[in-house]
């Protein structure tokens, strides 16, 4: 086999490898993770208060150094009042938050998580709370609770600072994910450029 043919085969193999890397990175982004189980489910009627609100995806959720601040489960009633302590625990493909509710009625559970492909996904499930037996009644708050601290005031300076803490850390998580993915794409692009340049080079060089 001539040197030119060997070079051509090597170039083709390298190009195929680069394409596979790029396709392997693009394919997961086209199919985000999705919820396979939840408490409550969309449109459910709860006849008792569960121990935890829960969301389970089809793949392990993405956490960096155990940082769960990119994840949230927020429960509100028909009047827009918030329930719970704002804390979320992430384990594998599931995240949970201690369940709390006020009087029987219509509620909504809004949740956010970072899927295994690095995308932040969110959704809201409506449900009805109709306990058959006496359940603890939690007083709702007018502002979202902050994990590890007092419920922030609706219009106070302390509340604004508390609300700002989570988005900052969430941004750091997503920035790190974007940096890693961008580096891999750049490496694949450089490989492709080198291969194409070698293929265009005259056989005598």
TrEMBL record:
A UniProt-annotated Pfam family: CopC
UniProt KW keywords: Copper, Membrane, Signal, Transmembrane, Transmembrane helix
Signal peptide (residue range): 1-31
MF (Gene Ontology): copper ion binding
This protein's record includes keyword Transmembrane: yes
SUPFAM superfamilies named in the record: E set domains
Region Disordered, residue ranges: 135-163
Biased composition (Low complexity): 153-163
Gene Ontology CC: periplasmic space
Designated name of the protein: CopC domain-containing protein
Originating species: Microcella alkalica
């Amino acid at each position: 086999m001539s040197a030119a043919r060997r070079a051509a085969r090597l170039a083709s193999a390298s190009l195929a490898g680069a394409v596979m890397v790029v396709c392997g990175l693009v394919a997961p982004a086209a199919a985000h993770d999705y919820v396979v189980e939840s408490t409550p489910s969309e449109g459910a009627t709860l006849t008792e208060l569960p121990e935890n609100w829960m969301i389970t995806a089809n793949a392990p959720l993405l956490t960096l150094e155990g940082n769960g601040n990119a994840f949230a489960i927020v429960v509100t009633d028909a009047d827009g009042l918030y329930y719970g302590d704002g804390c979320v625990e992430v384990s594998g493909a599931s995240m949970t938050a201690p369940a709390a509710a006020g009087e029987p009625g219509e509620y909504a559970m809004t949740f956010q998580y970072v899927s295994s492909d690095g995308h932040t996904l969110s959704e809201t499930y409506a449900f009805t709370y109709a306990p058959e037996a006496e359940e603890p009644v939690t007083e709702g708050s007018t502002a979202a609770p902050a994990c590890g601290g007092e419920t922030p005031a609706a219009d106070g300076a302390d509340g604004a600072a508390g609300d700002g803490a989570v988005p900052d850390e969430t941004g750091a998580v997503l920035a790190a994910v974007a940096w890693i993915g961008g580096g891999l794409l750049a490496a694949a692009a450089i490989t492709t450029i080198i291969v194409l340049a070698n293929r265009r080079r005259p056989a005598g060089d």
